[in-house]
Amino acid sequence: MTSELSIFKLITEASPVVQIVMLILVLASVISWTFIFSKYKEIRRAEDTSEEFEERFWSGIDLADLYRQLTREDHGTEGLENIFMAGFKEFARLRQQPNIGPDAVMEGTQRVMRVALNRELENLDERLPFLATVGSTSPYVGLFGTVWGIMNSFRSLGNVKQATLAMVAPGISEALVATAMGLFAAIPAVMAYNRYSTDIGRLANRYEAFTEEFLSLLHRQAHTK
């Protein structure tokens, strides 16, 4: 209990600049943890949705029936579902137009699916740059607070004739708290960024593989009917 009170006292009695640094780091840490939890749920949901959709897609169901089922479902579509729906809708629309060849149909379908794929990947990457920024800058922000606090401690020594450790210890301690807070904000952000970047990269490969396989199926349909 004593250590907790002493740390709280160091924070409340720190210089205004060091307190501002601490406040920035606390806000960055809170926002980072919010993004970490929300991104974790988003990635898990994307993985589960992709697995469920691929099972339906490769079950032998008619593509038109699958498209109609997805449009009638109450929950919103995402991930592979959006890529499939964008591609199949454009494919069906182009095939209904007169005097348009199979190659032109496939070019238009591929273009729309690529746009849908890029949009899904952008959604997955959302908020990751913030985690990268917090992870790379928080230690330096904390270090700035540390340097500022130590400077104030040694500046106060110029007004006394005999310096003692007890005189500089509080200032140095509050400065080191800023460094600790910077690391506390940076470490989880870096770990989450690395983990989620790997997960998103795996999802991106899955999305791209499905896109190529689906385009192959549509290509056969476009040239056989």
Describe the structure in your own words:
Residues 80-208 form the MotA/TolQ/ExbB proton channel domain. Part of the Tol-Pal system, which plays a role in outer membrane invagination during cell division and is important for maintaining outer membrane integrity. It is a multi-pass membrane protein. Belongs to the ExbB/TolQ family. It is found in: Cell inner membrane; Cell membrane. The protein is an all-alpha fold. The chain has one domain (18-224). It is 86% helix and 0% strand. The protein is built from seven helices and no strands. The chain has helices at residues 2-12, 16-57, 63-72, 80-96, 102-125, 128-156, 165-224. Helix 2 (16-57) packs antiparallel against helix 6 (128-156), helix 2 packs parallel to helix 7 (165-224) and helix 4 packs antiparallel against helix 5 (102-125). The longest helix is centred in the C-terminal third of the chain and has 60 residues, at 165-224. It is rod-shaped, with a radius of gyration of 28 Å. Residues 1-5 have low confidence and may be disordered.
